[in-house]
Design brief:
heterodimer; A: alpha+beta; six-stranded mixed sheet; 29 helices; 42% helix; B: two-stranded antiparallel ribbon; 2 helices; globular
Chain lengths: 628, 81
């Protein structure tokens, strides 16, 4: 385990070797959490020079194990809490080819710089001519300057301006999107990291790796969701979200749209726009698309996408019907270096503020509206550049709501992070409890169950039905004892708080090993296969239960960090809209959520974690997990 | 018997590099794209790839096994497989 430490203030670099970190924290988010927990002063502001930014490749990245491509970036977020984001593409592999596993960025530079990194070391170079440029321009210039195969991580104007939800863009189309890590990079005057390593990755047991790789691949390719995911990518769920009424339409006021499938559905997208399949390093699924607009105003335009998140955010939350217009909004966010979800949520909040009279045309400079591409595009740009009202809203919804008393019920953020893609009233399941317990705030990507099926059911809060067939369930790689305790014996239904705990640990493992979280992986690859892969690549004999224990420790450390930063039980709450308003969808109305019942589920989850009723970690839990 | 050759379908290449990784690992015991007989040349603007097989390739077939997109195949393999 080799960490490259770059001190921007002293303009020097060094290497840390620590094999103990690998066996205890695995890689990716696990290593980053440990580094953050041990090294970041809990009292500082996120933009303090003492904040650090960590990048760590997943432990299996750089091998041919299917989907092992992913890399994690972590820092104290502008939200004030644990900030972390994950990206695929080639970044994790490029880091490993510099003969390192992690990059730890310390301090602040006085002037804009970029770091050129290879297996021999680091050169900090002047970036004053890059400052002010968007990420596409930055990547293009650095590839011309440093070599066309360079892997470039960069920030755009949003990161430079410390927009609280600025992203770090990897190459042109991949993002470390959530929790504003681009703003941390911007505060350090670090415009880009440029990896040009030509190193080597050693494998402990080549024959075992071959066998494990084969097993991973056979399981992923035989998953019932593989064919659909190859064909539609993440857009596979676009239609079912509409049917279930879980779209975040018009700032979570409309769960379905009558013309959704005809304008933003998966088949419509595939037939009209998709040209080719693309993939991250080592991935046999290929959920990425290269797409082309063939007619209309944007005829000839080509891009990477469409991801369902883009469709749900710009297509539903902001009600843009046209896929080419959605593409334009995504490219603008990518160029400015801004998280698509938070940007869209903030624009939705501004439009609803305007509709309800909190903001006037004179405050904004024009009249914004849902479904109106021009005003939406302009607002995204104003936020990313912090122009006009973009100055205030660039601090995020949690900050802005202080200026608009009475708008709290539709200010859609949790723990300072803007809410994403799904309306919890449409289907309250493990995934939706997960949005409340997620250590990075209002986010849907850290608690996903391996048995989720996205079918409709009557809300119970405590349980969701188990619709997998016995054969499908057999494929799910999850310790049998946990299957029995969470799903019942024989398996019948999913106990939501217990599955939320398991799913959080399971996804922590995926994000530590650098594996993908798409359904063909979720349904087939679990702790026992990860254990085999860990042995093949590093020689560690760590079984599935020990891996889950390590993940439990990692989750607790992230949570303890948040508690030290002042997190309270009151922040585990959806905005009032979700508890008071009915949600309309194709089949009628969904009832508001029951706050008391959800609080009960949170407390059940806390108890399973060994936390008290307010979410404080009990001393005995800290001791059991061996956290110092 | 005619010598086997590897046929490339650049259009099908997803850029996943599984062929590159497999080649270097199974021929040189390390993962190092510089050592692989296979290289992918990426066109950034179109996100498309051109596959090249260097001289010296041992025709071991690891790259073909690794490719999940059928971008590589033996010359005599049925293209519809």
């Amino acid at each position: 385990m080799r960490i490259l430490v770059i001190d921007l203030e002293k303009r020097e670099h060094s290497y840390l070797e620590d094999e103990g970190l690998r066996s205890r924290y695995i890689g990716g988010v696990g290593i980053n959490t440990a580094l953050l927990y041990k090294n970041i002063d809990r009292t500082i502001s996120p933009f303090d020079a003492k904040n650090s930014l960590f990048f760590t490749s997943g432990a299996l990245v750089g091998t041919n194990i299917p989907t092992a491509s992913r890399c994690e970036a972590t820092a104290l977020s502008p939200t004030g809490y644990f900030g972390t984001a994950n990206s695929g593409g080639k970044t994790g592999f490029a880091i490993k080819l510099c003969n390192i596993d992690s990059v730890w960025i310390k301090g602040k530079s006085k002037t804009p710089v970029y770091a050129l990194i290879n297996e021999k070391g680091v050169i900090l170079k002047d970036a004053s001519t890059l400052w002010g440029k968007d990420t596409f321009e930055t990547v293009h210039i650095l590839k011309e300057r440093e070599g066309k195969n360079a892997e470039v991580l960069s920030i755009g104007q949003a990161g430079e301006e410390c927009v609280h939800f600025a992203s770090i863009q990897a190459d042109y189309h991949h993002s470390f999107g959530r929790t504003g890590l681009g703003a941390i990079m911007g505060s350090k005057k670090l415009k880009a990291l440029c990896f040009i390593g030509k190193g080597e990755i050693q494998i402990r047991d080549k024959n075992l790796l071959r066998a494990v790789t084969k097993k991973f691949r056979e399981r992923i390719l035989s998953s019932d969701s593989f064919g659909y995911t190859r064909r539609y990518g993440s857009m596979v769920v676009s239609d079912v979200y509409n049917k279930l009424g879980i779209l975040p339409g018009r700032n979570f006021r409309q769960g379905s749209f009558d013309n959704w499938e005809a304008t933003r559905g998966r088949r419509f997208f595939e037939e009209k726009y998709k040209e080719r399949t693309l993939a991250c390093v080592s991935c046999p699924i290929g959920c990425l698309h290269w797409s082309k607009v063939k007619d209309g105003e944007y005829a000839g335009y080509e891009t990477c996408g469409l991801e369902v998140t883009f469709t749900l955010e710009f297509g539903a939350k902001l009600d843009l019907e046209s896929i080419p217009e959605i593409f334009q909004c995504v490219e603008l966010c990518n160029r400015l270096g801004m998280d698509v979800i938070s940007a869209s949520a903030t624009v939705a909040y501004i439009i609803e503020l305007f509709e309800k009279g909190f903001l006037k045309e004179a405050d904004i400079g024009f009249s914004p509206a849902f479904g109106d591409f021009k005003s939406i595009y302009k607002l995204i740009s104003m936020i990313g550049m912090k122009e006009g009202i973009g100055e205030m809203f660039g601090h995020g919804i949690k900050y802005a709501v202080e200026h608009f008393k009475g708008s709290e019920s539709f200010a859609c953020e949790i723990k300072g992070l803007e809410m994403p893609v799904r309306d919890p009233r449409g289907r309250f399941d493990t995934w939706m409890l997960g949005v409340l317990i997620n250590t990075r705030g209002g986010d849907h990507l850290r608690i996903r169950t391996p048995v989720d099926d996205l079918k409709d059911f009557e809300r119970s809060y405590e349980y969701e039905p188990l619709a997998l067939s016995p054969t499908e369930l057999e494929l799910v790689d999850m310790p049998q004892a946990l299957k029995d305790s969470i799903l019942g014996r024989p398996p019948s239904k999913v106990a939501i708080p217990a599955m939320a705990k398991y799913s959080e640990e399971y996804m922590t493992l995926l994000n530590s090993f650098g594996l993908c979280i798409r359904p063909p992986v979720l349904r087939t690859i679990g702790p026992s296969l990860m254990s085999e892969a860990f042995r093949a690549v590093y020689g560690y004999e760590i079984d599935e239960n020990e891996l889950l224990f390590a993940a439990e420790r990692i989750v607790n450390m992230a949570h303890l960090f948040n508690l030290d930063r002042g997190l309270t039980f009151q922040e585990y709450r959806y905005p009032e809209r979700f508890y008071k308003e009915l949600e309309g969808y194709v089949k009628g109305k969904r009832m508001p959520l029951d706050h008391i019942r959800i609080e009960g589920m949170l407390k059940a989850y806390f108890a399973l974690r060994g936390w008290d009723e307010t979410g404080r970690v009990k001393e005995e839990t800290i001791k059991r997990l061996g956290i110092e | 018997m005619a010598k086997k050759t590897i046929l490339k379908n650049h259009e099908r290449c997803s850029g996943c590099m599984s062929c590159v990784l497999a080649c270097s690992l199974f021929n040189f015991n390390v993962i190092n794209p510089e050592k692989s007989f296979i290289t992918l040349d990426k066109n950034d603007e179109k996100q498309s790839f051109t596959i090249s097989v260097a001289e010296g390739c041992k025709l071991c077939g690891e790259c073909i096994t690794a490719c999940a997109y059928k971008a590589l195949r033996w010359e005599d393999a049925n293209p519809c497989d």
